[in-house]
Design a protein that fits this description.
The protein has 156 residues and is an all-alpha fold. It contains five helices and no strands. Helices cover 81% and strands 0% of the residues. Helix 2 packs antiparallel against helix 3 and helix 2 runs parallel beside helix 5.
Length: 156
């Protein structure tokens, strides 16, 4: 019986540490993505060269993919958080703050502007690596939204 308690305590501590690590990664990814959104918008408002567009877009796409992958990794913590209580755990508040980045209009504008420049630079091979990175990021975002919606949070 004592071994069972130790096993349970170890399991609880391991799960708690993993949740905290996921939240730390998420908050870092959210901060990085927020900065790269602004950098991408600044680049889009200028008249970027093909090289500048490709480099900035790869950075933007990598930050976007990391952000949505971190959000997706933190979903189990949110799914197991107590619902409907006034005193929500700090983890749920951190998740909500990080999730707000995904709902920002700026991200949508950056994605739309980036897609438009892909059309403008469609025949340039330097842009293909950026296009592939951008498409991976879009897929990461879609996967997150699919999992988030499956948990029923989009209905709230």
């Amino acid at each position: 019986m004592a071994n069972m308690r130790w096993a349970f305590a170890f399991f609880y501590l391991a799960v708690s540490a993993l949740a905290a690590q996921n939240l730390d990664l998420l908050l870092n990814a959210a901060a990085s993505f927020s900065v790269t959104i602004n950098q991408q918008l600044q680049m889009l408002h200028g008249n970027p060269s093909v090289t500048a567009f490709a480099e900035k877009t790869i950075n933007y796409a990598e930050a976007e993919a990391a952000y949505f992958e971190a959000l997706r990794a933190a979903l189990p913590m949110l799914a197991h958080a107590p619902a409907g209580e006034e005193g929500q755990p700090a983890e749920a508040d951190k998740f909500a703050a990080a999730l707000a980045v995904a709902e920002e209009e700026q991200q949508k504008i950056a994605d739309k502007g980036t897609s438009a420049l892909f059309a403008r630079f469609s025949n340039d091979p330097r842009v293909e690596k950026a296009r592939a990175a951008f498409e991976r990021a879009q897929k990461a975002e879609q996967n997150f939204h699919k999992d988030f919606d499956a948990l029923g949070f989009s209905d709230q």
